[in-house]
Design goal:
seven-stranded mixed β-sheet, 8 helices, 7 strands
Length: about 230
């Protein structure tokens, strides 16, 4: 386990519908622009922690657009299937490439403190059978990481529900001898109320603005059009 990597799971803004639950508060163009900012900030914040960053993208024909946006990284298309199947496939592919431990993160939390992913990495590097998970306020999770492959973590999970993280943790706890780290809770920006929370955080917290510079600039330029 000498080459840790983090996988960023993302839709390619402009090649796929993104942040659709923020409509009609935002236009389709604004949703795309905001998604680009979220992705940019996420990848930027991971750079000090992870030398190896894998962009797992969908749709498959969107690589050039996303590479133009965030630059040179390792790119893998997401597999077809449920989110659990896509997570399993991306994690397995990273291990096949020689990486480990492997952490997966989304792009819905642009102000997520990088210390959380660093805590996850430290735990996984310290435990041969480590698993780390970051619960989200909506019942999902913003991060999951493993020291080695574990089958069944996502079996029967109801995705996009208030039980997603709970069900995933239950599956993990059924795997023998796993050392589980539960990270501090954070929030995803999916709904208009989440966007309002993000705006308030950026307004009040300078460190949040530093973690989400592209997002902060976009909000400053566009806030009057949707608030």
């Amino acid at each position: 386990m000498t080459q840790p990597a983090i996988i960023v799971m993302t839709k390619v803004p402009g090649s796929a519908g993104v942040k659709t639950r923020l409509r009609p508060l935002l236009s389709e163009v604004q949703c795309t622009e905001l998604a680009r900012c979220f992705l940019t900030d996420t990848v930027t914040n991971l750079a000090p922690v992870f030398e190896h960053r894998i962009i797992a993208f969908t749709p498959e024909n969107g690589r050039s657009a996303i590479e133009t946006l965030v630059g040179g990284h390792i790119y893998i298309p997401q597999r077809v299937g449920t989110l659990g199947e896509r997570l399993d496939a991306a994690i397995a592919e990273a291990f096949e490439m020689g990486f480990g431990p492997v952490i997966v993160i989304g792009t819905d939390s642009p102000t997520l403190p990088p210390e959380y992913s660093a805590q996850a990495l430290d735990h996984l590097q310290s435990h041969e059978d480590g698993v780390a998970i970051g619960p989200a306020d909506d019942g999902g999770f913003y991060l999951i990481g493993v020291s080695r492959l574990h089958k069944g973590m996502f079996d029967g999970v109801t995705w996009s529900s208030d039980k997603t993280c709970e069900q995933t943790v239950a599956n993990i706890e059924n795997i023998a001898d796993v050392d589980l780290l539960v990270l501090p809770r954070w929030y995803d920006v999916d709904e208009p109320d989440d966007l309002a929370r993000l705006i308030a955080e950026i307004d009040l917290d300078e460190t949040a603005r530093d973690r989400a510079r592209a997002t902060s600039r976009w909000i400053t330029e566009n806030q009057k059009t949707f608030v």
